[in-house]
Amino acid sequence: MDLQLFSNDVKSVTDVLRNILLSFIPLFVAVDAIGVLPIFVSLTEGLDKQQKNKIIVQSMVTAFLLAVSFILVGKLVFKLLGITLGDFMVAGGALLFCIAIIDLVSQTKERRIPVKDVGAVPIGTPLIVGPAVLTTSLVIISEYGLLPTVIAVIGNILFAGLIFSGSYWLIKVLGEAGTKALSKIMSLLLAAIAVMLIRKGILLFIGH
């Protein structure tokens, strides 16, 4: 009996870890921290280490608050507006596909740069947490659950902060061409995920 309980506990933990990993991957593609890295470098050029660290913390806090708030309130908004999961998957997939195509065909991910609070805007949002991350987050909640999604979001934000912290060395190793190439690969993966979401949304319509 104890052995059976232990086996069930192990299976439960394994399932949770699997869901976290499956949630992390599409969010990792949507955040595209490596692709955003050159923009971070250009926005913080000439600043000392303390100023850069302050901007990184500000961007992570902004991204976390925005993403978690959207995750917690998003489903309630759906219920009030009468939006189904299938509706959102098709619409979200179409949006992600458009974002991916724009990133694929554009030379740079240019954003309007504000005079102050650069950590909050544009680094925290829309660079770390933008439409792609918000759309992906709500969709994977229904696929893998709330807890794995929140953990995956936090993990990706922390990873982005880590990437930005080592920005000097990463740019030196990858070079500008390397970061651009990786960004394009991320955009291609995002497009594939978008097609998958649209397909699943259509299957939900057919199933009903």
Q: Determine the strand fraction and express it as a percent band.
A: under 5%
What structural category characterises the helix and strand content? mainly alpha
Distance between the termini: 41 Å
Helix content: over 70%
Determine the number of helices (DSSP H or I, runs of at least 4 residues). Answer: 8
- Run of helices and strands: HHHHHHHH
Query: Which geometry do the CA atoms define?
Result: globular
Whole-number average pLDDT?
A: 81
Largest sheet: none
Write down the Rg: 19 Å
**Ranges with pLDDT <50 over ≥5 residues?**
111-115
Number of domains: 1
Overall strand count? 0
The oligomeric state of the chains shown is single chain
For the structure shown, list the relevant keywords.
8 helices; 208 residues; 0% strand; mainly alpha
Word description of this protein:
The protein has 208 residues and is mainly alpha-helical. The protein has one domain. Helices cover 87% and strands 0% of the residues. It has eight helices and no strands. The longest helix is centred in the C-terminal third of the chain and has 41 residues. It is globular, with a radius of gyration of 19 Å. The termini are far apart.
